[in-house]
Design goal:
Radius of gyration: 20 Å
Number of helices: 13
Order of helices and strands: EHHEEHHEHEHEHEHEHEEHEEEEHHEEEH
Low-confidence stretches: none
Mean pLDDT: 92
Largest sheet: 6 strands, mixed
Strand order of the largest sheet: 5-4-1-3-2-13
Shape: globular
Helix content: 25-40%
Number of strands: 17
């Protein structure tokens, strides 16, 4: 039996109530402050992960800090909370420690955490990229977009996930725009893509302008608040939102029934897995970053597989292959926490085509 631990944290105060029911009766800011003072702790035992090659169990370790607190408190304080959680994992006997959500964004993306522990650490970003690209390709195809002839936008292109998404998609796209705040890093990435693939990409820090032209958008910023609003998107656009917290405003689904928003990195876990914690997903499914830690445990690859902000295409391809070997696969499409059927996507596409016809007639 192989094992692992994975660190989660509440995105906002409301998430605390998923584990502690009494929290829903306390004002958000009060519960956020109170919970944030607690040490990192074990919150559930994960059982039933079983591939045709191996079995695994694990633990969820909770860092008590919300996203807002992680971004506002001193970095050293936040890192100490994460390292504290890693030490809890060590005491439980975990052989590898995975970082989720903003715990892998703080500081140097896991490097300091790994140096402070006696077990390897992985951010899960490699498998997150693999599943995000697979989701994007599939969703785009269902909406009638061929990546070779579509305007592709990568939002958050200079981050760890966005950068390697851009490098991989550039091998098949013909029109691509990279968006980020650091224009120097954007230019460096554009030069690498040109050298590797011959594709001349556009770069900009103007998010709104780039989004208005995008047919297919992969968004993976580290923003605390949403960055994509209903008025930003063209009719028929496909958005794969890999970021947590989400980059896409909930208003998009409420006001735009002619665009498709899917969540990147939702996978089915092999076996009869019991997470014993409600993190908002259907039974048997997990985030891809969680799944990477599970895959490495099943494969007995107890090593710091994905660390820091420089991911490689070979890492993404390797973890995708290992995940397939052990029976992990995409869990259909989800949008804002709910499953979205092929029929719904067909209807969205139909509405988008009707909008285009009306626009052409004017």
């Amino acid at each position: 039996m192989q094992n692992f631990a994975f660190m989660i944290h509440p995105m906002h105060a409301g998430d605390v109530a998923r584990k502690f029911k009494f929290a829903k009766f306390i004002p958000d800011r009060a519960i956020e402050r109170a919970f944030g003072m607690l040490p990192s702790m074990k919150v559930s035992h994960i059982t039933g992960i079983r591939s045709s090659h191996e079995e695994a169990e694990g633990w969820f370790i909770a860092c008590p800090l919300t996203t807002r607190l992680m971004m506002s408190l001193p970095q050293s304080y936040v890192l100490n909370k994460i390292i504290q959680g890693g030490r809890v994992a060590e005491k439980l006997g975990a052989k590898i420690f995975g970082l989720g959500a903003f715990t892998k964004v703080v500081g140097d993306a896991g490097v300091t955490v790994a140096k402070s522990l006696n077990i390897p650490v992985t951010t899960g970003n490699s498998y997150t990229v693999a599943t995000a690209i697979e989701s994007t390709r599939s969703a785009a195809q269902m909406m009638g977009h061929d990546l070779k002839n579509s305007s592709v936008v990568i939002l958050g292109a200079t981050g760890a996930i966005g950068r390697v998404c851009a490098l991989i998609i550039a091998r098949e796209a013909r029109y691509m725009t990279l968006v980020a705040r650091d224009e120097r890093k954007l230019e460096e990435l554009a030069q690498k893509i040109l050298y590797d693939t011959g594709l001349a990409v556009k770069v900009t820090s103007d998010t709104k302008k780039a989004l208005r032209s995008g047919d297919v958008i992969v968004t993976v910023t580290s923003a605390v608040d949403t960055v994509i609003e209903p008025e930003d998107l063209k009719s028929g656009a496909v958005v794969c939102d890999v970021a947590r917290p989400r980059d896409v405003s909930k208003r998009v689904t409420e006001l735009r029934d002619d665009v498709l928003v899917v969540e990147g990195g939702v996978v089915e876990v092999p076996g009869d897995v019991a997470f014993n914690l409600n993190f908002g997903f259907p039974p048997g499914t997990a985030y891809a970053c969680m799944a990477e830690t599970m895959v490495l445990a099943l494969e007995k690859r107890y090593e710091s597989f994905t660390l820091g902000r420089e991911l490689t295409i070979s890492q993404v391809e390797e973890i995708a292959g290992l995940a397939k070997k052990h029976g992990f696969k995409l869990s259909g499409f989800r949008s804002f926490g709910r499953a979205i059927s092929n029929q719904e996507i067909k209807e969205i596409r139909g509405r988008a085509e009707a909008v285009r016809v009306t626009s052409m007639a004017k």
